[in-house]
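Supplementary Methods. Inverse-folding protocol.

Structures were first reduced to a discrete structure-token string of length 387. This string, shown here, constituted the complete conditioning input.
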């Protein structure tokens, strides 16, 4: 387990962490629909999906006939229907000076601003190269420090006045997107996986051969819908190959990879009325990963074994823009000078003493994080003792 800003927030608050790496915006739409009642009961929503979109999906989808920004804007519009104060954390990127990256970054800040979503622009903190794991991700201890800052400003959340909690779940699902789970498709073929971080049900790849009744479960949702993404699961890092068959015989073969759970978008919309079957493939049929994912210079396709896909869910879309319900009224104000100061205090031995509140937070952080990340806890203890 790695420490980050979520671990810091857990020092004082109950946090439902629904985020997952290496996933497109479709995953977050799926998660919003799936956890609608949970999100309606929360006092605050924090989203932090931007790095994946700026770095990968916006670039990969620009030449496809798929309007990726439509789904981004739909996701943000769906958030307005929750009517909850929301913070969008825009984590910094080393190559932000590149014009393409800067424009994408600005796109998210302007979209957030237009809907009343508070955005935390961490590029203003001026991280240096040593603060990053790679070009796109800051080190987890820097993320943890961000969580310490959010803890210092969390009292503003308590001033939030409870809003209308009318359940709009049917409005979400039936009018725009529909989530079809493994249990919905074929309950008798469902396996369950559960650990401390993840609990999910999936159709075992050995039995993943969707025809007739199973396909009817997908197609009956709405004849106007199209399949746009799907979730899959592997207990080991392996390649999965499957075929989507259509009534027009323009069949599509896809290969995915990875260990754990992922939700991946398709490179085109597949109308459910044109769907005739989804079948596993155990023999090599495609030597390119879906969405053109990089497999490494030493990767040898000829040496690899293909495994049937363990299907978790399918997301369909009605090709309609989600309207904005209302601009979110509760805005948060962040002091970037304070964030910079806290980062300096937790990285430099020559800075001014921490305040008593900051010392208490760091002491609690040291106690809490000791079993998770000993190296970081030693660093926090050093800072605490020094001050």
């Amino acid at each position: 387990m790695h420490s980050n800003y979520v671990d810091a927030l857990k020092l004082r608050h109950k946090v439902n962490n629904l985020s997952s790496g290496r996933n497109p915006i479709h995953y977050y739409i799926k998660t919003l629909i799936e956890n609608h009642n949970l999100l309606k009961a929360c006092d605050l929503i924090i989203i932090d999906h931007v790095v994946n979109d700026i770095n990968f999906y916006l670039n990969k989808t620009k030449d496809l006939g798929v309007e990726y920004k439509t789904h981004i804007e739909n996701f943000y519009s769906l958030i307005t229907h929750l009517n909850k104060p929301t913070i969008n954390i825009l984590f910094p990127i080393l190559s932000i000076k590149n014009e393409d990256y800067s424009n994408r970054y600005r796109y998210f800040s302007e979209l957030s601003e237009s809907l009343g979503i508070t955005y935390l622009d961490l590029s203003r903190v001026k991280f240096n190269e040593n603060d990053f794991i790679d070009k796109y991700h800051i080190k987890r201890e820097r993320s943890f420090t961000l969580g310490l800052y959010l803890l210092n400003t969390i009292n503003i959340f308590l001033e939030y006045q409870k809003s209308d909690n009318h359940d709009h779940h049917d409005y979400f699902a039936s009018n725009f997107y529909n989530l079809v789970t493994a249990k919905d498709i074929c309950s008798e073929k469902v396996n369950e996986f559960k650990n401390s971080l993840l609990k999910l049900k999936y159709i075992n790849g050995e039995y993943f051969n969707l025809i007739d009744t199973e396909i009817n479960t997908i197609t009956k949702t709405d004849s106007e819908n199209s399949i746009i993404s799907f979730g899959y699961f592997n207990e080991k890092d392996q390649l999965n190959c499957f075929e989507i068959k259509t009534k027009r015989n323009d069949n599509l073969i896809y290969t995915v990879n990875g260990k754990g759970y992922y939700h991946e978008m398709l490179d085109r919309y597949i109308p459910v009325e044109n769907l005739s079957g989804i079948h596993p493939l155990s023999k090599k049929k495609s030597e390119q990963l879906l969405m053109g994912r990089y497999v490494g210079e030493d990767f040898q396709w000829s040496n690899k074994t293909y495994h049937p896909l363990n299907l978790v869910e399918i997301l369909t879309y009605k090709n309609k823009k989600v309207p904005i319900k209302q601009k979110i009224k509760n805005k948060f104000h962040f002091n970037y000078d304070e964030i910079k100061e806290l980062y300096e205090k937790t990285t430099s031995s020559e800075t001014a003493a921490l305040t008593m509140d900051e010392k208490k937070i760091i002491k609690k952080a040291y106690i809490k994080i000791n079993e998770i990340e000993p190296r970081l806890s030693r660093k926090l203890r050093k800072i605490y003792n020094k001050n």
